[in-house]
Task: structure prediction
Amino acid sequence: MVDNPVEILYKNRGKIFVGIIILFLLILPQLSGVYTVYLTMHICILSIFALGFNLLLGYTGLLSFGQAGFFAAGAYACGKILLAYPSLILGFIGGVIFSGFVALIIGFLCVRHTRIYFSMLTLSFGMMIYSIAWKWRDVTGGDDGLVGIPRGAISIPGLMRIDMSPMENYYYFVLSISIASMYLLYRIVNSPFGLIIRGIRENETRVLFAGASLRRYRLISFVIAGIYAGIAGALLPPLESTVTPVIAHWSYSAEPVLVTLLGGINSFFGPVVGAILFFSIKDIIVRFTEYWLIIFGSIIVLLVMAFRGGIMSFINDIIFPKIKALSEKRSIND
Amino acid sequence: MTEILRTEKLKKYFGAVSAVDNIDLVIEENLLTAIIGPNGAGKTTLINVLTGIITPDSGRIYFMGEDITDIPTNKRVVKGICRSFQITNIFPKLTVSENIKIPLISINKMGMNMLAHINSMKDINKRAEEILVVTGLLEKSGVPAGNLSHGDQRLLEIAIAIAAGPRLLFLDEPTAGMNPIERVKILENIKKLSSDRKITFVIVEHDMDVVFYLSERIIVMDKGRIIADGKPDEIKKNRNVIDVYLGDEIL
Amino acid sequence: MFEKLVFQGLIGLSNAMYLWVLSAGLTLIFGVAGILNFAHGSLFMLGAYFCFTFYGTLGINFWVSIVLSLACVAVIGYIMERFFLRHIYEIDVSYQLILTFGFILILDDVVKMIWGGVAMIPPLPQFLEGSITIFDRPFPIYNIFIIITGIAVAGLLWVFLDKTWWGRMIRAASSDREMAAALGLRIPLLFSSVFIAGAMLAALGGALSIPVRVVAPGIGSSMIIQAFVITVIGGLGSLKGAFVGSLIVGILNAYGILLFPFFELFMIFVLMSIVLLIKPEGLFGR
Result:
């Protein structure tokens, strides 16, 4: 049987949609002003942060309140490196490796527990990182944080050098990193490893009786989430040229929680959709009122009470079946 | 007959109650064994101790000659001891075939592969299909496990355990809550798999028809002890067992 | 040096008592309903703001102001339980944490809208002004009042839970929910009352704090984190643990500032992590 064109389009809707989005993002700097480009970078950063967070919550079933700590680890390490030697690649990689390292040590201790004790442990370790960032003035700059961080060039001595000072150039760097890391995570959740961690979320006893070590899988998932927080964190200092301890505070961990819930924890791209909505809504609200947190608090309450699947499950469960039913109807009429 | 599992003076107390009381037991390879006994006799606790969910207070457990008393559950599974559960214990939101693939991936040490797509793993897919054919769940391979009928969930329960590739498999009330047709289907399956001589089955069951139909050896437990052990015919005649458990209905 | 240590210990003790009143509420709610309320610190903050309005702005009698603010926060606590948390007791605990987290954001902004930024510190009631001399240093009478109040709350809670029918029911419910239901206890009613009682304890802590502490929108999240540390150290759901935990944290804070002024915050979290890793049920947990 040959599928009709509508059917083919419907089957590949995900790929087509992603293709259009990427195309749009590539030409975005030509279409719009510098503010939109700046905002888009923040959306990318929060998306990566939240995708990592959702690997823990949505896929592994662990709620971490310490992700801000790994975000800060990536940001501070990247900032320190850039201050010492202005190479973007070096700063970025250094930030990512450092956050992964921190996540490995903390994760090793945290995955001994699950549920509420896991959440409390991550909160506690996250706050340890915060207190270091806040108090160890010699290294972290204390309250003021790190300032005057240069947006170092991408350079391979003698071969090439791309100046990063134009916002547009840095935008393409952030975009490439975002697309690459999203693609990689997409592969991870659809891999054998991804299936096992989803199994752990659903039924840990049964995974034990599949012969798998729960702790090991949880630890690896934790480290990947930490690295993703670190990637997001490391993209921040070159953009803002400062890093302050606020980003390490546990209440900053709320952002990935919020956008993940908003987009939907059961969908891979849920956190990305959530991040887009978060910044768009925030951008609109702050024009009218400074009290945007009350709106987001209410959205969280509404989501938890009534739409625990978030926006994506609303689209997948309610909108798409309707479109499909419509297309089937048409093909019958043909 | 060769032994596959042996216990030495195995003990587990819950407070003052002895759930497993000084049990010396040898399970023989390829002999379909049933453990029966009244509620609270310690059957499920015994399985929990043997599979490592509960740590015994004292005593040792040997699997194929190796002392496994102190190794964790997941490593016992790798060595070849698995179980199914009395209360259906599957992955409800994953599809039937994904349910089967979790133990297959884990046991074949592919769980750390993060880049291959699950559907592109030929060996795993082939083996999953074989198990689905054997258990009659092939048509439903794409259905979320939570949407299956109760009988099919019970079948899947056993299929997941088989997928872990055990040498010794404990089935905890495999026919619980099934209708007669499903029951026959599952019993035929167990009998057939047992006759293949790859897996040694030990079933815990309440239904005496099932026990006498399937088993080649019956162990009767009461209050944490083994009170009788023998062929089905011998057990039927055992005065002790009749008093404690079988009652008059058998006679 | 010895005198300095004792004096600092007394300061720590009075700080510990705010924390104790706050954590007692958190513990009570967790023990009975199994809810870890992230917004508990926000209830503390509301207690402070209400008391500030009644006492500082409207000039109502200090004691009456405290009672009024407790009543106001009790209503808010009731709304949180009855219309929100009650509907999600059965689902994953993560959602409960996230929901109460949403309350923090809402209450923080509500407070900003109504009261603006930092509130002024109102004058003390006359009879609590002044100080007595301990080791040649002035020790405020208000701190002594706080210490006495904290101990009184502990005593009252103990009498209530140990000697009254309701108290025994609460203890029964916290150890075995099914048994409590079997005893004919109406669980929804019990949960609501416990939630209200917990909210009032938080409000009491807040109301008592206004003459000595800055009242600002952020205090909710800084108080809850300390309450978490305390309840984790003492054992989630154990009142005795919350009391001892408060003493440990309050006094450690006081000495920490004296001995390691840069890492007192760090040390508290090190302590919390160690307890969680070695004895996750806490010092007095079951």
Summary: The longest strand of chain C covers residues 131-134. Chain C is about 75% helix and 5% strand. The mean pLDDT of chain C is 84.
